[in-house]
Design goal:
Layout (H helix, E strand, L loop, with lengths): L6 E4 L14 E4 H4 L4 H17 L10 E6 L5 H14 L3 E9 L2 H10 L4 E5 L8 E7 L8 H11 L4 E4 L2 H6 L3 E4 L1 H13 L1 H11 L2 E5 L5 H12 L3 E5 L27 H8 L5 E5 L6 E4 L4 E2 L1 H10 L6 H4 L3 E7 L10 H7 L4 E7 L3 H5 L4 E4 L3 E2 L9 H15 L3 H12 L1 E11 L2 H12 L8 E2 L2 E12 L6 E12 L3 E7 L7 E11 L6 H18 L24
Parallel strand pairs: 3-4, 3-5, 4-8, 9-10, 9-11, 14-15, 14-16
Antiparallel strand pairs: 1-7, 2-6, 5-6, 11-12, 12-13, 16-17, 18-23, 19-20, 20-21, 21-22, 22-23
The protein binds 1-O-phosphono-alpha-D-glucopyranose and zinc ion.
Amino acid sequence: MKKLKVQSHAIKKPYKIKKMGTSGLRETQHVYNQPMFLEQFIQGIALFFKELTDDREIAEKNKTIIVAGDPREGNRERIRRIASILGANGFDILIAKDGIASTPAMSHAIRQLNVAGGIILTASHNPFTDVGIKVNMSDGAPANDRDIQRINELQNKVKSVHLIDYDRFAEMEKITEIDIVAIYADLLDKIFDFDEMKNAIEKNGIRGAFDCMYGAAGPFAEEIFINRLNMDADLLRSEPREDLGGYDKKGNPLHPEPDFDYIGLLKEHNSSGEYDIVSAWDSDVDRRLDGGKDFFIESADEFALFAKYSHLINISALYREKIFFCRSTVTAATIDLMLPFLQEKYPSKSIQIIETPTGFKWIAELGNWGVEESNGVGNPYLREKDGIFSTCFLLKIMLETGKTPRQLMEEIWAQFGRVYFTRGEVSGARATEARQLTKILDNAGKLVGKKFGGLVLESAGSWDYIHPETGSIASKKAAWVLKFSQGNTIKARFSGTGSGGYMLRVYCSKYDKKFNLPKSEITKQMKSAFDDFLKKSGFPGKSRQYTDKNQPDAYKKKKK
Ligand code: G1P
Ligand code: ZN
């Protein structure tokens, strides 16, 4: 076969490239569009995959990488550029149709097609003004901390970038388009049995409304809910758009994120009470907000529901010896309440509840099942969180039991109690403020015994992640933990996905045996305690920004 000429561009002024964070590297369009920035970034990733695949132990066929992502501005051109760099470095490329794929579909396709890995172009729920790129490995899991470290070393050592002519490379059939929608839909069919579900949907006259938020979800939702399940479903905002919906009335870019601030239309559909099941998914479809009949389910609660009905997806065949039910440590501990129940349900398995740092890569590397508080529930058949999987699983449970989402959740809460949970933030632009917050939280232990906003601080410290398999500390200080009186717990950590400034995430949770209390009343106490704690510690920044208003609250306080 004739060889294509590889062009090499010397990098005279290399960028200092940041290490990938919670989920890939997220930067503004401006940063990614600087001359040769993307090129240096990708050349480093190409060198990383070369290191892995040049090893003779690994089969030839692994010299292939899948590239795709969400539809955000510039991604189409970036995919071409990435393909020409990977091609020049000796890789064949698979590209999803129109360059569009969800993160879970990528994870599955990488394993299914037995390739070296994938490059996923998405800044997830960030608006289209941000760009993100992440790397998944041959098992479909996001690159773990060690791999990310190596990638970053290589990225910052790049001396020249190699490029090949895209069109001519494609003519040589080194770039192949794959039908990733079908590959992914086939997996869900295998898990859930679409024929059986289709009949039950028809028999029960199930109606759905699904908000694709102009991200990658549209083609997947259409294939699965309309074509395969033949459901009477309204697909909202289903065409993939470069601007992911553009700007709101005040001129702020819309976030393709399934929380109440951004899903007004779906909320209206849900509150009409006419839809049995509703969902919204973020731009790369790994997050979900599911519900139906005027009710929405938080992710930690949905994971508990899935655990209860895990026999429906044949979990015991998937995990022969041990089943880990993982949650990031900041996520509501609903699943923890179910440990005895799960041990009884699966007597021949070793059942463990594992707490991890934030970022699904920590759960994925354990090769098991898990949940994050930010609307993400894992799909145990692949190594990512998965929005459409979750919606299908909820639907499957509804069809099996004939119950509504509210009835299903109330059964769980009545049996195990409920963890009331909310997430908020303290944010700003100045690094000095972030440093001050760090200091205050590091020193919180000195304030134990003091009263803040009506609650007493009972203990304060930080949480280290001890890896369940190696037994060593894999992530130090992954969250601060402040325990207040009456079982009120606050955890905090800095966000790792923003593209400027700082954001301290504040997570409030409290257990109660009663499940039908107004959530905002319960969390209000914790929020004012934390505010008071910051104020008394001398923090000048505003911490008023965290509220429950953009989160589900099933039992509102009755107006007097
Ligand atoms: C956020 C979420 C976290 C999630 C991540 C990637 O990260 O909080 O749960 O894993 O996005 O989707 P953060 O900005 O908090 O670092
Ligand atoms: Zn996402």
